[in-house]
């Protein structure tokens, strides 16, 4: 069966199952099976797929039609210029989180060598992306899940994600910042912020992420409420990703915790998404370390 016919049949199959962007989905899986860049498919429309290639693709198409995320099927995802390993151990990095990385990069570019802590690091996407952009700093990814941390460590060895030589990126199992005492310049966090009702009504793909990475409690704010009083003792500045309807509440929580200066940043669809909270106008002098 020729490549173009395979793409057309797969696209139709996905459309009948209600998938958005069915042609793109078909191209992503086909390119993965053939070890080609997606646009490289357009140069090989007359290529005959082997029986083994067709069998592999059929298996992936069945999984995708059952609403398993493409990233879990292929085992990778792109994020901020990195290619990260991806599985059910941690939240699939979203484009919205790249906005958080951009603002963290801006903040860190003029600061001297310092510690940056990512709370709830999951795949390790945030510290690994920042290490590439601001390599002079030291990065620490915290997560309560040992499986997520194992994935983050694996991602730190991937060719596109290996930290630059001399840059320290470390991982530690921890419940938020509980019992943590070392000072930092910046804390980043993309914690679970969905309510149980939002999880139940979300697209089926979302429920393939671990519940630990999704469920923020009744209001979606349980972990953020815990984190802010811990964070203010450790860092003068925090960047929090949250839901578009939560920024006002989180801004108030941050002020009450001791972060009086608040800036809310928009996501790619112009919705409020990132809360930047400062103890004062300038981050305090960063901690030094050996």
Account of the 3D structure:
The chain has helices spanning 3-16, 22-34, 51-65, 70-74, 95-108, 125-133, 146-155, 196-201, 222-231, 247-257, and strands spanning 76-79, 82-85, 115-119, 138-143, 169-173, 186-189, 237-241, 261-266, 272-278. It has 290 residues and is α/β, with parallel strands linked by helices. It has two domains: 3-66, Helicase, Ruva Protein, domain 3, CATH 1.10.8; 76-278, Rossmann fold, CATH 3.40.50. Helix 1 crosses helix 2 and helix 9 runs parallel beside helix 10 (247-257). The longest helix has 15 residues, at 51-65. The chain is globular. Residues 283-290 have low confidence and may be disordered.
Keywords:
alpha/beta; Rossmann fold; 2 domains; 16% strand; disordered C terminus
């Amino acid at each position: 069966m020729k490549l173009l016919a395979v793409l057309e049949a797969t696209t139709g199959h996905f459309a009948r199952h209600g998938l958005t962007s069915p042609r793109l989905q078909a191209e992503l899986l086909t390119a993965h099976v053939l070890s080609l860049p997606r646009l490289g498919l357009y140069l090989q429309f007359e290529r005959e797929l082997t029986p083994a290639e067709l069998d592999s693709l059929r298996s992936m198409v069945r999984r995708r039609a059952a609403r398993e995320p493409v990233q879990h099927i292929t085992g990778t995802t792109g994020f901020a210029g990195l290619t990260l390993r991806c599985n059910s151990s941690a939240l699939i990095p979203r484009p919205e989180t790249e906005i958080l990385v951009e603002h963290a990069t801006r903040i860190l570019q003029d600061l001297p060598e310092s510690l940056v802590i990512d709370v709830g690091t999951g795949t390790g996407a945030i510290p690994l992306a920042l290490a590439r952009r601001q390599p002079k700093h030291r990065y620490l990814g915290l997560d309560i899940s040992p499986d997520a941390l194992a994935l983050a460590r694996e991602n730190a060895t991937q060719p596109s994600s290996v930290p630059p030589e001399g840059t320290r990126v470390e991982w530690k199992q921890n419940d938020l910042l509980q019992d943590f005492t070392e000072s930092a310049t910046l804390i980043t966090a993309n914690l679970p912020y969905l309510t149980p009702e939002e999880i139940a009504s979300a697209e089926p793909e979302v429920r393939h992420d671990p519940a630990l990475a999704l469920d923020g409690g009744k209001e979606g704010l349980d972990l953020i409420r815990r984190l802010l009083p811990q964070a203010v003792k450790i860092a003068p500045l925090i960047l929090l990703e949250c839901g578009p309807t939560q920024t006002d509440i989180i801004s108030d929580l941050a002020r009450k915790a001791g972060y009086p200066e608040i800036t809310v940043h928009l996501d790619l669809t112009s919705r409020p998404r990132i809360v930047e909270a400062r103890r004062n106008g300038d981050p305090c002098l960063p901690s030094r370390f050996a």
